[in-house]
Amino acid sequence: KAGVTQTPRYLIKTRGQQVTLSCSPISGHRSVSWYQQTPGQGLQFLFEYFSETQRNKGNFPGRFSGRQFSNSRSEMNVSTLELGDSALYLCASSLTPSEAFFGQGTRLTVV
Amino acid sequence: QQQVKQSPQSLIVQKGGISIINCAYENTAFDYFPWYQQFPGKGPALLIAIRPDVSEKKEGRFTISFNKSAKQFSLHIMDSQPGDSATYFCAALGTGNQFYFGTGTSLTVIP
User: Fold this and answer.
1) Which end is more exposed in chain B, N or C (fewer Cβ atoms within 10 Å of the end residue's Cβ)?
2) Is B9 an 8 Å CB contact of chain A?
3) d(CA B81, CA B109)
4) Any CB–CB contact under 8 A between A99 and chain B?
5) Are B102 and A42 a contacting pair at CB < 8 A?
6) Alpha carbon distance, N-terminus to C-terminus of chain B
7) Is the pLDDT of residue A106 over 80?
8) Residues 6+ apart with CB under 8 A from A76
9) pLDDT digit string (tens) for A44-102?
10) Helix (H, G, I), strand (E, B) or coil at B105
11) Nearest to A109 by CA among A17, A42, A6, A32
12) Which residues pair with B98 in a beta bridge?
């Protein structure tokens, strides 16, 4: 069974640009959550999607957005990038709320 | 405000020793407490988890001890091995399928 696939693995962007990250969940998993991981703040919840609907959102500015497609694949977008957005962005897919399987993440560097 | 507090930040243990990582939480609505293991360049992987109606859960060399009245739980790694060297995160599942993570413990097991 394939795991959670995140693409790309690494990204370098310039301040002010926007970026789109992709996540393909485990087959059959309809819930996809996104987390930001930084050395200072640890893992912080961004949002969760289920059946193409955002069910929950963390405390991040509106520059962070996401969506989910009918095949459960999800994308997150960050607009007007800031240096502080540099982080590892992790996607987790779940069949049940308690079991979250994480991808390897996308390492975003904003310069 | 950190919903889940984790200590220590780093831990060095001799091979064969016991590694102990502690976490505390405040929100009594949390109803699932997993531990994740993360190696460099990888996403967090579920190690072991417990629900609050159980005081202890053991899987191989890994044990979770849970104290509901004190709102604390801990991970014990028996017979620690160099391959256990990784960062460990405790977490708690809250409403909205959102995980709240501790800040992580970097474990180094010396051969």
Assistant:
1) N
2) no
3) 6
4) yes
5) yes
6) 37
7) yes
8) A20, A21, A23, A34, A46, A47, A64, A65, A66, A89, A91
9) 999 999 999 999 999 999 999 999 999 999 999 999 999 999 999 999 999 888 889 99
10) strand
11) A17
12) none
Contacts of A92 in chain B (CB under 8 A): 43
Torsion, CA B20, CA B17, CA A40, CA A59, rounded to 10: -40
* B17 token code pair: 């020793």
**Angstrom distances, CA of residue B80 to CA of A12, A81, B11, B13, B108:** 38, 42, 12, 7, 9
* Token pair in block for residue B15: 């091979």
> Using the beta-carbon criterion (under 8 Å), do B97 and A31 form an inter-chain contact?
yes
Q: What is the pLDDT along chain B (111 residues), one digit of tens a residue?
A: 679 999 999 999 999 999 999 999 999 899 999 999 999 989 999 999 999 999 999 999 999 999 999 999 999 999 999 999 999 999 999 887 899 999 999 999 999
SS3 B97: helix
Quote the tokens at residue A96.
């049940």
Residue A1 has pLDDT above 90, yes or no: no
